[in-house]
Design a protein that fits this description.
The protein is mainly beta. The chain has four helices and 41 strands. A five-stranded mixed β-sheet has the order 30-29-28-27-32. A hairpin with a 4-residue loop joins strand 27 and strand 28.
């Protein structure tokens, strides 16, 4: 059956135009076909079909960038809800260029996910470890934060949803796959079930935020006038002992009526700790300490029009909705000690009885605030794929299936067959912030992509990225970081620090939304394996807008197939096989030539065709003797040479 399209307005000045609209039916956009009643089902008519790697010939559906990005698989999970709103601290770039990442994991498709817990993988500078097959904890947990202490030991901290409280596990050093779970719980409370942590550390000091579950089987808890508030605790001894859970100073019932799971974020750097508490129909409040958590200053950086908001208690003109954050905030401390906050937005008006996202109106971009740029502004937008306005004049259109939540009965509301909205979040959501040595600020988030539908006409999401070179005063045009289009890429988490590459992980599967939130009684979103991928994108390519927007209706841009080595091969020295992660700017055949110290070619490997993006390359030194060698990775347009050592 024909579906309705949600039409929203954009700030089109931040979108780059790419070419003209198709002139015939075969080149018409899905938007036009739906409006004309000529597209009743989208199966077999998708804009996710990609030409061969070197083709510049448009498909019969219209012209678009013929680029497909590859990534390095680091793990999987059948439990597919990584957060209710904010992403958290799940990716670390260590000082030596190695990386540790974590996510909520389960290896079983059972709807109870009995082995759910924290999965961790480690990048040793060139290759990733084997995909985790077990959680780090000895009991069922979820929602991990990850960190490292000065002595090199790693920790995960996650919640026990059944009994409440947080579970802390440790290993003896990054890359070690043996974990030990501490006895007892962190952040327990006699009043109720404490879950959904956000944790960071400064040296041996740990800082954690946690919220009451507030679920049907867990009675509400009221503390100092706030129902199910967000609480804070600190440890001075690597999590062995903790202060009592309490409200942060200034977080009180004068402005907040209740708390919310995952509607908060934390960062810690040098002696600074920055915490943000937000939530739909609530203020965004910044708590900052410059003395490692001893004292705090409190600032409301985005005040909601109705403090202590109760749904349905305020009359708001439907033509003049009141905006607020969606809870998907992230916080970052930059090189100057200034705090940055990013997140999505929604809006509220009196007739929104279904609580769906259609009320979001024009507020679908990602927003940014910082101490040196204290006015909220758009830092990123979803991409107008065809550069063509709809009949209403809107420039960005996605389906109602994409923006609606499940109804009260757990099934799609408003007569729809599907609902793909991520909880209470906005169109642009799940922000993650990072900073490089030059104090450039980067932000990733996910948003629906026009004309990329599943069989129920819900738009797939991609990970988007933008950056600022002036502390947030201005932002570059959005680029599509994943460009997958035939699957859903969500929950991106960047490392807080960026080197020559932006590093992030994300989750991908074939169905918009999550099994937890969008399956309904009809198994609309089946419980399938989700893949966790790692991406490393050169900062210079972002600055040069090489990724682009992957839009329709323009001639493909021919890009040099330049090869970047993300870091030195590992292991090094080695005896048989070594690995190196590379980034390809564009697809190309790839060869690896090894020469000895005199320049003599001793081996050549045909690596085959490699698409744009990241690849884990193996170099075979089995037949070589001990010594210093050089390996050259060569595409059709460029080559890069690095030194390696073989020891037999």
């Amino acid at each position: 059956m024909k579906r309705a399209i949600l039409l929203t307005a954009v700030m089109s000045t931040m979108i780059v135009a790419y070419g003209q609209s198709p002139s015939d039916l075969h080149q018409a956009s899905a938007k036009q076909l739906i409006q004309k009643g000529q597209l009743d089902a989208v199966d077999g008519f998708r804009f996710d079909q990609t030409p061969t790697a070197e083709s510049t010939t448009p498909t019969s559906h219209g012209k678009y960038r013929s680029e497909v990005y590859d990534f390095v698989r680091v793990g999987n999970t059948y439990y597919d809800l990584q957060t209710n709103a904010s992403i958290g601290r799940r990716a670390l770039l260590h000082d030596d260029g190695t990386i540790s990442v974590a996510w909520t994991f389960s290896s079983t498709s059972s709807t109870t996910w009995p082995d759910r817990g924290s999965a961790v993988n480690y990048y040793d500078g060139t290759s990733w470890g084997a995909e985790p097959t077990a959680r780090t904890e000895n009991i069922r947990t979820g929602w991990p934060s990850i960190g490292m202490f000065p002595d090199g030991t790693m920790y995960t901290i996650a919640h026990d949803a059944t009994a409440g409280g947080l579970v802390l596990s440790r290993n003896t050093g990054k890359g070690n796959t043996t974990w030990t779970t501490d006895a007892g719980k962190v952040a327990t409370h006699s009043g109720g079930n404490m879950i959904w942590n956000r944790t960071a550390n400064l040296g041996d000091k740990m800082f954690t935020l946690v919220n009451f579950a507030g679920q049907a089987d867990d009675p509400d808890v009221k503390i100092k006038g706030i129902t199910n508030p967000t609480l804070y605790a600190m440890s001075n001894d690597k999590g062995k002992t903790w202060t009592s859970l309490d409200l942060l100073p200034g977080y009180d019932s004068a402005r907040y009526l209740d708390g919310g799971g995952d509607n908060y974020a934390i960062d810690a750097r040098d002696s600074i700790v920055a915490i943000v508490i937000a939530g739909r129909y609530k203020d965004v409040t910044l708590f900052k300490s410059t003395d490692s958590g001893s004292t705090w200053t409190t600032s409301i950086i985005d005040s909601f029009a109705f403090p202590r908001f109760v749904w349905g208690s305020y009359l708001v003109d439907v033509n003049n909705p009141v905006t607020c954050n969606d809870g998907s905030v992230d916080v970052l401390i930059d090189n100057n000690g200034d705090v940055h906050v990013a997140g999505g937005r929604v809006s509220y008006s009196d007739d929104d009885t279904t609580d769906d996202l259609a009320r979001s109106g024009s507020f679908f971009g990602l927003y940014h605030w910082s101490e040196n740029q204290p006015n909220w502004k758009v830092c990123g937008l979803p991409i107008d794929m065809d550069d063509q306005p709809a009949a209403s004049g809107a420039a960005y259109d996605i389906t109602a299936e994409t923006t609606n939540s499940m109804g009260a009965d757990g099934n799609p509301a408003n007569g729809l067959a599907y609902a793909a909205r991520y909880g209470g979040t906005s169109i642009s959501t799940h922000s993650s912030l990072s900073v490089d040595k030059d104090n450039n600020i980067f932000v990733t988030w996910d948003a629906p992509v026009e004309f990329t539908f599943n069989d129920y006409l819900a738009n797939y999401r991609d990970v988007h990225i933008s950056y600022s070179t002036d502390g947030g005063a201005s932002w570059a045009t959005t680029q599509n970081a994943t460009q997958i289009r035939s699957q859903e890429a969500v929950f991106a988490c960047m490392t807080k620090k960026t080197d020559d590459f932006v590093h992030f992980i994300f989750q991908m599967d074939a169905h918009p939304g999550t099994n937890l939130q969008n399956s309904g009684t009809g198994n609309l979103h089946p419980n399938v394996e989700n893949t966790i991928y790692y991406a490393a994108i050169p900062v210079q390519d972002l600055m040069d807008s090489v990724l682009g927007q992957n839009t329709l209706n323009f001639e493909p841009v021919v890009k040099e197939s330049k090869v970047f080595v993300v870091s030195q091969n590992q292991p090094n020295p080695f005896s048989d096989i070594t690995n190196v992660v590379i980034y390809m700017r564009a697809g190309s055949d790839l060869t690896c030539t090894v020469t000895d110290a005199t320049g003599k070619v001793v081996s050549t490997q045909d690596m085959g065709f490699k698409g744009a993006g990241n690849h884990d390359i193996s170099i075979d030194g089995t037949d070589l003797t001990s010594g210093v060698y050089f390996y050259t990775l060569k595409s059709k347009d460029s080559e890069v040479t690095k030194k390696m050592q073989i020891v037999k």
